Amino acid sequence: MAKISLIVNGNAVNANIDPRTLLVQFLRENLRLTGTHVGCDTSQCGACVVHLDGKAVKSCTTLAVMADGHEVRTIEGLAADGAPLHPMQEAFREHHGLQCGFCTPGMIMTAVDLVNRKGHDLSDEVIREELEGNLCRCTGYQNIVTSIAAGAKAMAKSA
Amino acid sequence: MYEFKYHRPATVRQAANLLVKNEDAKVIAGGHTLVPVMKQRLASPPHLIDLSHIEGLNAIEMKGRSLVIGATATHADVANSATVREAIPALAELAGGIGDPAVRHKGTIGGSLANNDPTADYPAAVLALGATIVTNKRRLKAEEFFQGLFSTALESDEIITKVMFPLPKKAAYVKFRNQASRYALVGVFVAKRPSDVRVAVTGAGSEGVFRATAFEEALKKRFSHKVLDGITASPEGLNSDLHGSAEYRAHLIGVLTRRAVEAATAK
Q1: Among B120, B150, B166, which residue terminates a domain?
Q2: Which residue of chain B has the CA closest to A59?
Q3: Which of A97, A107, B4, B11 has the fewest C-beta atoms under 10 angstroms from its C-beta?
Q4: Residues with Cβ < 8 Å from A73, sequence gap 6 or more?
Q5: Residue-wise pLDDT tens digits, B191-211
Q6: pLDDT mean across residues, chain A
Q7: Closest chain A residue by Cα to residue B8
């Protein structure tokens, strides 16, 4: 077993885990943060994307023990319970950026990371290129791209 | 995944000692090859030695006429580094085209080279640019480092610490992606160096990365895509699988070499 201490969504978390626990498993099973999904489990689909020290990573391919001492943000950490949605979440709602919703947490965490890196004025081409690691099997991406472009602009206003 | 013990050394020396002490231990940095392989139970190292918290091991800097990249520099670090973009823009572009943004935040140059996946991008750059791979024990030339499919000259207690790239006059990397996996079906890195020209091919060879010498000879006389007319790559020794035949890959080598030379001369 390995003792780990990390910050998850602003809260200090201590745990004693088997070193082979994946970060996504730790978030879902130990912390019950089930907003982060397991899709392909092979680092391709992006349903498991969370932020590690502010950068988008695939939590199905990250060992929880490697996050010891670091900071993790999940979809649950974007907006507090009952508070207004994060601008990117709101944009996905407004522009119908989802159908079944399975890929949505990963899409939104990837989108927020994209805005952090490339700013608020994103072309469709850049958004599509940046979504290489996030798969959606329902929407055909059209409304996801629209949502991200709108969410990026909305984040500028709320910042 | 099978059980293992996790170690987090603070220095390369500590990491190397852990490797010596623990038989069959593996080093991990980004984990983007090793973790998937462990999940599939194709690897079951009893000890994992995490290099990602060794301070300074991800440094990127110019040293004389060489660009030096630390082993744990991520693909995103390399792609976004002003130093790399200034020194060898083709290398920054290559790093920015590996995997996807989340993968680039974790995967490292040292990990990619140590794994020597036959479809990886970095081996082509290292071989074409004539880079030197520095370990905790010695310096290895690119051509002695790569030793066929998933194998390298690294010994069991050896750790890559940095990669030194001499600056080329011109360089470019062009890859043709497999449409499903997005890995390089074929990738060609062309480098016009002060003394010669090198053309390194990844994705195609059944023994991993290799140099396309017929193209190199022609380009040495004149660095222009025009001198490549009539030069073809042989399908012998190339991979043939459901993604493409050896003949198709050979054809791609010719096409991509031309494109890479055009891209390098346009810069």
Answers
A1: B166
A2: B102
A3: B11
A4: A8, A9, A50, A51, A54, A109
A5: 999 999 999 999 999 999 999
A6: 97
A7: A66
